[in-house]
Amino acid sequence: MDMYQALVDGVIWSLLWAAVILLTIWKAPQQLVHDYPKEIQELVILPPVNKKVYRWIIVPALVILIGYLFISVIATYGAAEVAFWVPMLHIFVMCIVWNSVDLLVMDWLIFCTIQPKFMILPGTEGHPAYKDYYFHFRGFLIGCAYSVIGGVVCGGIGYALLKLFFW
């Protein structure tokens, strides 16, 4: 297991995720209202999602994000056969790095502390729920569970790709 490479790939993957989230908040905030605290969700009324704009964001984003997981595993372990658990752990580490960056940088630092205007939904300016650090910590814990699932599923697929095409 190349822990250093998993951590580096996790940081790169985190930057990709952050770019997707910031672009989505900027162009289609309706798609991420469910990630805001309930008190804010209840106050905001946004126009319906422009599905064309959303598709132009989400489809390429998912291809890049999911593709990067597999590219990372293939680039790191394609040259020599590794145990089944290695790609799973590699992807799990990448997911945990992203989950940690999401909590510490995206949620606590940017969303709760800095609060840039483009993240504040119309009609909710100054609402105390923007400072609900515990809300984001709960999301982090849920993200940890998804990281395990993602590591197992995507790592298993990554292992199968390695076995079929590279070893």
Shape: elongated
Radius of gyration: 18 Å
Please report which band the strand proportion falls in: under 5%, 5-15%, 15-25%, 25-35%, 35-45% or over 45%. Answer: under 5%
The quaternary structure here is single chain
Helix content: over 70%
Largest sheet: none
Keywords: Membrane, Transmembrane, Transmembrane helix
Summarize the structure.
With 167 residues, the chain is mainly α. Helices cover 72% and strands 0% of the residues.
How would you describe this structure to a colleague?
The chain crosses the membrane at residues 7-26, 53-75, 82-101, 140-162. By secondary structure, the chain is an all-alpha fold. Helix content is 72%, strand content 0%. Helix 1 (3-27) crosses helix 4 (85-114). The chain starts with a helix and ends with a helix.
Q: How does the SSE layout of this entry go?
A:
Layout: H1 3-27, H2 38-43, H3 51-77, H4 85-114, H5 133-165
Helix pairs in contact: 1-3, 1-4, 3-4, 3-5, 4-5
